[in-house]
Amino acid sequence: MKKIYFPIVFSLILIFDKTAAVVICYHGTWSHYRSGNGNFPISLTPTDLCTHYIYAFAGLDASTNQVVSLDSWLDFNLNGFQNAIALKQSNKDLKVLLAVGGYSQGSARFSNMAAHQSTRATFIQSALTFVQTHGFDGLDLDWEYPARRDGQAQDKENFALLVKELYEVFNPLGLILTSAVSAVHVDVSYDVPTLSQYLDYINLMLYDFHGFWDTHAYHNAPLYSTSKLAGTSSAGFSVNASVHQWIEAGASPSKLALGIPLYGRTAILSSASNTSPGAPTTSQGAHAGPYTGTVGFWGYNEIVEQFQNGDWTLEWDDEQEVPYAYKGTTWLTYDNGRSIGQKVEFANDLGLGGIMVWSIETDDAYGVSDIRFPLLKAIQNALDTSRPNSSTTSSVSSTTSSTAPVTSETTSSSQKTSTTTAAETTTTTTTPTSTTTQGKPSSDSRRIKDANSCVTEGFFGSSVDCSIYFYCQSVDNGHVGYSFMCSQGLVYDTTFGICNYPALVDCSN
């Protein structure tokens, strides 16, 4: 193992089944309403890259203590719940759960509900009815955060009672029970041994350790703590420290899912001449992205589009084992294939149950970086290569073949290096070296004329201009098509479902 600042020895780690690691995928379903490359209908979910899909969110009614829909138009009129369950048609082993809560729901209503046995019973019966009625495989509790936010000291004990009582109802019926939990202040909010006993998985939200709200530039989700914060209250803000804190508090490693963000955080540097981690910032975030619309927050899908604009310098923080980038005074922290590979290796070394991501709609779903879902595929690739006797060929390699243009942002590495690669120390450029090829391949059934020609759900190339491709979505009365364009100099490759170099794609008339 690498540098572990909170070493613990577990002899049982050797008997964990590392081939059974889960990948728990949260989906912020409001992304259905986003435009362009931010649009993410439920049907776009890569079911081969997730073992668990979590529909976020349902709510808790403060007056009745019952589970309620937060978006009845999406959930019912647009068949959101039904479409989520239908994902199992393409992966029969996929587990589909419903998340209740979320940051916007606050903590007070959960605190009030959990404070009494009678109101807990009302919630549990409501949750059971809701889950069974709509066909979910289980429930995810997302109470942010017990005993810390608009709550009371008794929240810690009451949350444990709620989980135990839910288990007693759900478990005999074969229903799954998980919870998203904080990475810090564990002893304040959680009775860890009880949660570990009764939850199937504990989803560690190992991100937002830092952001534009700080006065200095630090990483959103570092694997290891930085020595620059030694002796401060933020000294333990890292994946490594948080995971060990949960284990030391009594969590079974096999119940823990290591959370990885599929997004980045931005900050504005005080000076463009000081761009290193720890540099002073103005406590302001960069402009909101076109899809997520949140200042200081960019989905990875927005990040790859930023990088295509050029002039970004990509760096690697060797101490915290994560990337960062800057352009002028804009400072960005994010995860890429390399840092994700390190985190998956870390999880595997400790015998953790698997990986959790927040959230799939901010991965590069449409392949702007030339590979669809590069971060989810980096997780899968790292899990495959870390398993004993695993084949060197995985479902990832079938997509990212030797003929496909793979960028440094999508590769993963399990080796820690004291040097940085050229791609991480120089300003990126997106100047193309070839021109777009146009044509109309007569033998390719995966090409259609335009977005109005959709008859089947899925991705299709254009039969008129090979730089254009479409996503066809099934709706009640047929299909709706969305148009997209490859980066300049690339064309849509229907064989691999990516934007590829023209020389490698048959776009002849």
Automatic annotation (TrEMBL):
Its EC number is 3.2.1.14. Residues 21-386 form the GH18 domain. Residues 451-509 form the Chitin-binding type-2 domain. One of its GO terms (molecular function) is endochitinase activity. Residues 385-442 have a biased composition (Low complexity). GO terms for biological process: chitin catabolic process; polysaccharide catabolic process. Residues 384-448 are annotated as: Disordered. It catalyses: Random endo-hydrolysis of N-acetyl-beta-D-glucosaminide (1->4)-beta-linkages in chitin and chitodextrins. Pfam families: CBM_14, Glyco_hydro_18. SUPFAM superfamilies: (Trans)glycosidases, Chitinase insertion domain, Invertebrate chitin-binding proteins. Keywords: Carbohydrate metabolism, Chitin degradation, Chitin-binding, Disulfide bond, Glycosidase, Hydrolase, Polysaccharide degradation, Signal. PROSITE patterns: CHIT_BIND_II (PS50940), GH18_1 (PS01095), GH18_2 (PS51910). It is an enzyme of class 3 (hydrolase). Residues 1-21 form the signal peptide. The keyword Signal applies. The keyword Nuclease does not apply. PANTHER family: CHITINASE, CHITINASE 4-RELATED. Belongs to the glycosyl hydrolase 18 family. Chitinase class II subfamily. This is chitinase. The lineage of its organism: Eukaryota, Metazoa, Ecdysozoa, Arthropoda, Hexapoda.
